[in-house]
Amino acid sequence: MGVQPNTVVYHSLVQGLCTHGDLAKAKELVSEMMNKGIARPNIAFFSSIMGSLCNEGRVMEAHHIFDLVTDIGEKPDIIMFTMLIDGYCLVGKMDKACGVLDAMVSAGIEPNVVTYNLCF
């Protein structure tokens, strides 16, 4: 029988998998959590991982986390969009940053002063 993993264990595993780029396995674990009735990670959880990745210059990986959030049925918020824009700006990919800004507006999320300060 053994001990069943709880929310803390699942969240730790998902964070580790996301940080190390194994998003397929992370998505599997999130699905498993949902099937077992365990609360899945929220937007703030994934934002934290994205922020760390962006600060390390791993923006493409952060973008994959962003996509994972959408794949599990969550809606990225202004913080996630802004973080991704900032990450692309930090690595000099202004075209990608502008693309994320366009996607943000298309998703019905209005950029704030912080977002605009990153772009202009």
From TrEMBL:
PPR repeats at which positions? 6-40, 42-76, 77-111
Reading the lineage from the top rank, the first entry is Eukaryota
UniProt entry keywords in alphabetical sequence: Repeat, Transit peptide
> What Pfam families does this protein map onto?
PPR, PPR_1, PPR_2
UniProt entry tagged with the keyword Transit peptide: yes
Family note: Belongs to the PPR family. P subfamily.
Q: What is this protein called?
A: Pentatricopeptide repeat-containing protein
Source organism per entry reads Triticum aestivum (Wheat)
